[in-house]
Amino acid sequence: MKVSPSVVVYTTLVAAALAASLGCPAPREKSASSGDATQPPAVDSSDSTDNNAGHVVANSEPPPTVLQQSHTEPDAPPPLLGADAAPQVPALLPAVETDPAFTEPVSSALSATKAVTTPEPTATEPLQVAQAEEPAKTTIKIAAPRDAASGADAVNPAEAKNSQLPISLQPRKHSHGPTRAPPRNADGSYGKSRVDPVKLNGPVFLDEPGKAWPVPQAALVFTGALEGYIEPCGCAGLENQKGGMSRRHQLIKEMQAKKWPVAAFDVGGLIKRFGRQQELKYASSVEALKKMGYQGIGFGPDDLRLPVDRLVESAAAVTDAGSPFIATNVALYSFEDALVERYKVVKVGNLKIGVMAVIGDEDQKKVRNDEIKFVPAATAVAKVLPELKKAGCDKLILLAYSNLREAIDLGKQFPELDVVVTTGGTDEPPDHATPIGEKTQIVQVGHKGMYCVVIGLYDDNEIPQRYQRVPLDVRFGESKEMELVLSDYQNVLQTEGLAGLGVRALPHSSGQKFVGSAACADCHTEAYKVWQNSGHAHATKTLTDLRPQRHFDPECLSCHVTGWDPQRYFPFNSGYLDLKKTPHLMENGCENCHGPGGGHVAAELGTVEVSDAKLQALRTGMRLTLEAANAKCIECHDGDNSPDYKFKTYWPLIEHKGKD
Asked: In this structure, are residues 391 and 68 in contact, taking their beta carbons and an 8 Å threshold?
């Protein structure tokens, strides 16, 4: 590779990926310094002909059996949602927080009813997932055992002082061949874990220290608003991060191994963006939920951006047990088609659980597709509730993809409901259910799949219910079944390629071309050495070393190569394409922070003639203030991928200044 003599660099190549050990599976939130992360202009979602997105694998758990099926149609014809159609329910809480609005246009959805059974328990052995080193608070009645969590999920970077980079970011021996990456620990991390998840995030399923929950009549698992976070990114070390389908499955399997009758329900919101990759991710997420044995899955407005035929593929019943999807107030094409059940009656142990799933009236307004039909949430619930009462349900559950205010209003309007599960509220769910009225409770599931909420039901007048917020941390390890699902997803991304995913290169705002970090080495010798010894210089290798490899995933590439938009997941013209075509742009290079250096290098080499003023302008354009450097850093070192990021801590690890 040709090395050129001169590039003026002032302060930083902090950005993109201060090393990553796993791919970047989920869309990052828009940071204060970045552009709109929710609408990548380079993604073309018009391709809806590939059938790879919708295959379904049979459940690994015993298949649920159908108790009853009933397609309850709205009175003819059902009113469609409009600004005037939503019922005017009084606001009972004047200052309840609502969800931020989605900002993109939308394009698709579903509707219909059913019922299912889980195996009854055959033993009464209590589940003891983890025990605290310090006393935990006691669970009584419907209140939750409050976790002994500190609220932090990061390791102090000062622990890594002597290694120049945090341990999880140290490069591993690289191979592009079939040699496997180092095996994971049982907790899913590489190398020795530095984190005690129980001490950090608290024990689970304890009434008091040393005393586990008794076996419940039924254990109801609630999730929702995954928003594309199918696995933790791993950039800051898996032991520092929560979430992921794999850990979720391990939790469910541990409960089942203790003979708990388990039923899992997801409110919806599996993805957050749009485009071909999101179609594939949605299909993989649905496949994962089906493998886990989920018995109820709702829809979020972002799910309904997908092409309608993709939703049909994912929601279709492929076994005698039927489809787990529920859409009480949403119809695909029309309510008459009844392609998705409007409710389910699920047998869990000896209990019948009636379940509905709605999209709140405000979120309905974000869906703009003539093939999707709605009725107001309250209208649909009022229509279905008599059917569930007739079925003799012991508990009535409403899954509400809505803001918190709407969920509370629905709970107040229908006091027959036992639990209203909502995606409204904060990223981290509260450590207890919120009672409204005599028996109805509000349960928040949080966002990004970092937690599950488990409600245990008991035939006990004194303590009829227990509640647990479960942090999906490394205590739960990895599920082999989920690893296969994620591997299939990455394989499909590889098959599709960037062109098949609709990812197109766009011009950089500077108009310059990327030339690679080696072009900086002759004139910026000391700065280049700092880069070579940093995690940035191994960013692409962390993707290729993984199994499955992640270097075909745009959401990972954007912070692990040179010449991509880190928040919108597309390459710039002359940016990285693949290992063979653009090897000089592997890793997270100088230009990701300083900008493409083609013009500067050409001027310094004399391959183009420029005036002194132009030469100086090109040099100045490559410099960054520390403030600007920090803004570049957080495009990749955001709260999801680097929860412990602080500029004043990270910058000394790669501190460098311009020309020698």
From this structure: yes
- Domain 64-126+206-485 sits in CATH at 3.60.21.10
Ordered by start, the domain boundaries in the chain are 1-43+505-660, 64-126+206-485
Residue 318: the pLDDT is: 64
* C-alpha–C-alpha distance, residues 277 and 500, integer Å: 9
Classify strands 343-348 and 206-208 as parallel, antiparallel or unpaired: unpaired
Question: What φ, ψ does residue 205 adopt, rounded to 5°?
Answer: 60, 45
Dist. CA 220–CA 209, nearest whole Å: 23
Torsion angle, CA of 152/154/158/162, rounded to 10 degrees?
Answer: 160
Phi-psi region of 423 (alpha: psi -120 to 50; beta: other; left: phi over 0): alpha
DSSP per residue over 14-69, as a string? --S-S--SS---SPPPPPTTS--TT--TTB-------GGGG-----SSPPP-----
The pTM for the full model equals 0.73
DSSP 580: T
231 CB-contact burial (10 Å; exposed 0-12 / middle 13-18 / buried 19+) = buried
Summarize pLDDT for 236-271 with one digit per residue, the tens: 677 888 999 999 999 999 999 999 999 999 999 999
Q: Which residues contact 133 (CB under 8 A, 6 or more apart)?
A: 198, 199
Q: In the structure encoding, which two tokens stand for residue 144, read together? A: 């939750």
**pLDDT tens-digit readout, 167-215:** 222 333 322 222 233 344 444 444 455 789 999 999 999 999 999 999 9
Please give the structure tokens belonging to residue 441.
């409770």
Q: Measured between alpha carbons, how far apart are the two ends of the chain, in Å?
A: 21
